[in-house]
Amino acid sequence: MQDKNSTTNQLNIELSDEVAEGTYSNLAIITHSPSEFVIDFIKMMPGVPKAKVKSRIILTPQHAKRLYKALKDNVSRYEGTHGEIKDPEGDMPFNMGTPTAQA
């Protein structure tokens, strides 16, 4: 016998073909105010001096914390299966292959 609450608590989520393709991002910038977190997902390409924000997600602080917990849990599960994700040492190089400016 199925609990009647289990069917009323289901959420029907639609995923369009365009969104299902995903958007590539290799940099995220996070800013926040007392009422929201803003995550800009950016695509930087080697040798291109300009990067584009490909997607912006705005979250309440409560949802940002839920996302943090879910991401932390999923990274732990991933590493449990595939091994530790190596974090490159030092800061990310923002020139991505562009010439270094000299004075």
Plain-language structure description:
- There is one protein chain.
- The chain is of the alpha+beta class and about 100 residues long.
- It has a domain of about 60 residues.
- It contains three helices and three strands, in the order H-H-E-E-E-H.
- The protein has a three-stranded antiparallel sheet.
- The chain is extended.
- The mean pLDDT is about 85.
What is the structure about, briefly put?
By secondary structure, this protein is α+β, with helices and mostly antiparallel strands. The chain is 30% helix and 20% strand. The model has no long low-confidence stretch (mean pLDDT 86).
Average predicted confidence as pLDDT: 86
Q: Which strands sit side by side, in order, in the main sheet? A: 1-2-3
Q: Which residues sit in consecutive blocks of at least 5 with pLDDT less than 50?
A: none
The number of helical elements comes to 3
